[in-house]
Design a protein that fits this description.
Layout lengths: L2 E2 L17 E8 L4 H8 L4 H8 L4 H22 L8 E3 L5 E3 L8 E8 L2 E8 L3 E7 L6 H8 L2 H8 L6 H18 L11 E3 L9 E4 L5 H4 E6 L5 E8 L4 E6 L13
Parallel strand pairs: 1-10, 2-12
Antiparallel strand pairs: 2-6, 3-4, 5-6, 7-11, 8-9, 10-11
Helix pairs in contact: 2-3
């Protein structure tokens, strides 16, 4: 699947099932009422509360709390655990994963956020990366492409009409970020060491990874439509998977009630 259409977000079934061919993406609003934020904050562990406290701006602290708490709630429903029982470990470059017995079923996830929205991707038995960006005027988009993107991507980008370059930049950026998050390297992998499709109309694909000629065959990319003013992308290991989208709701029963 190359694109997840805008509006294709659904309320999930009361019992979640996740097969090896399923890819679930959750859309999480990060600005609920103060009452909801207070209730969600009680879910976090000591380390997460300390991390939240380090945010100077209240809005950033709130969005961190909401994102982490709802991450716990959603994963807890898949695992049959209370949100407080979900435990994490972190890879060399900071990619989170489940810890302990929760890893036995092969559940894996990735979280991205931008402004007041987050996306959570959940899969079973394969790696996944997701990215999200709020569209905005970015004066140095062309400079970033010229300095950090690959030679092929630069050529594709600068062939695009100037009025389309902002959107082209963000679509390319989320595709590249989704891939490097999926492999768990973050920006330890230079952005110029691999190519993704960039030109308008080109379906999202990984085209090349330096010194790894078989790597593009290992991954499939899809464009996500999180809503007006946002772009998103997902990178999933393997092929033959099916994508479903859910909308998280807030409040005491806000476990996984979303729309596909």
């Amino acid at each position: 699947m190359d694109t997840h259409p805008e509006g294709d977000w659904h309320r999930p079934p009361s019992q979640l099932t996740l097969g090896s061919e399923d890819v679930h993406v959750w859309r999480i609003p990060l600005d609920p009422s103060d009452t909801v934020v207070s209730e969600l904050a009680s879910i976090l562990d000591v380390d997460e509360r300390a991390r939240a406290a380090r945010f100077h701006a209240v809005i950033h602290r709130t969005r961190f709390v909401v994102g982490r708490a709802l991450l716990r709630r959603v994963l807890g429903q898949y695992l049959g655990l209370r949100p407080e029982e979900v435990a994490f470990v972190y890879g060399e470059h900071g990619k989170p994963a489940l810890r302990g017995e929760a890893t036995i079923g092969g559940l894996r996830f990735n979280l991205a956020h931008s402004k007041d929205l987050a996306l959570l991707a959940v899969v079973c038995g394969r790696e996944v990366g997701v990215d999200l960006e709020a569209l905005r005027a970015l004066e140095d988009a062309e400079r970033i492409v010229a300095r950090f993107f690959s030679t092929r991507e630069q050529a594709d980008f600068f062939r695009v009409a100037p009025e389309l370059r902002q959107l082209t930049f963000f679509r390319g950026w989320v595709r590249k970020e989704a891939y490097i998050k999926a492999i768990g390297k973050g920006l330890a992998l230079p952005l110029g060491d691999f190519d993704v499709t960039l030109a308008p109309g080109d379906p999202p694909r990984l085209l090349r990874v330096q010194d790894q000629p078989d790597e593009p065959n290992r991954w499939a990319l899809a464009e996500l439509s999180p809503g007006v003013g946002f772009v998103g992308a997902i990178a999933v290991e393997g092929t033959g998977w099916r994508l479903r989208g859910f909308d998280v709701t807030h409040g005491p029963q806000a476990n996984t009630e979303n729309r596909e």
